[in-house]
Amino acid sequence: VRLTGLLLTSLAAWYLGFFIAARVPQTTISNAGFQGIRKKPVLRAPVPKRQKCDHWSPCPPGNYAYRILSGGGKEKMAKICFEDELVIFNFHGAAQQIYRLLSGQHLLKFRFFPGFSNWTVIRCVTDSTDHSGEMMSFIRNAQEGTLLLMATHDDGSTLLKNDAKKLVEELGSREIMNLKFRSSWVFIAAKGFKLPDDIQKEKINHSDQKTNRYNGWPAEIQIEGCIPRNLI
């Protein structure tokens, strides 16, 4: 009798459970959170705030932010960023040397000086313009208290004369005399004042068939940093 009662009770409990499961919506069960009891909470770090010129960390108050990126290959154009104002130089394959002047809180002007490539060879043979002379006049006419940001794309050495190189060297460049065919080169200089010793001022990367990132082209390089506003 007891065994029969136990079997009947078990059968009734099973039937009751089956009846309840069939009647209760699945969304109610999932919303109860039973499925996520064993899951560990996911901690997500906040998205980092973007800094001027894409610096990893912000410049201290009272500083200008800058970043100079040389060209790399035919598709990677030279870029100059100052206080988050970005200039991308697209020369459609023509080699160029870029000089941009900055004074106070205003970007004054920029100029392109053709270098050497298959396109500019033809142009320079029929064009008597002295681009090295133009560059020298451009630098010499810059006012005191001016920043000069320089970069190369393709080749900036073949048509750059020694007197122009010496002028850049007088601005503090240690690599301008070492510039070779298609060297990637970036440089920041000051006219009429001295830049801090602890900032990135210049980098160079020479073309080498064994290490070139692109076909016949070295990898692009960059410098970045912060310049106290009271110096300008």
TrEMBL record:
One of its GO terms (molecular function) is carbohydrate binding. GO terms for cellular component: extracellular region. It is found in: Secreted. Residues 128-192 form the ILEI/PANDER domain. PROSITE patterns: GG_LECTIN (PS52031). Keywords: Disulfide bond, Lectin, Secreted, Signal. Belongs to the FAM3 family. This is FAM3B protein. It comes from Cephalopterus ornatus (Amazonian umbrellabird). The gene is Fam3b.
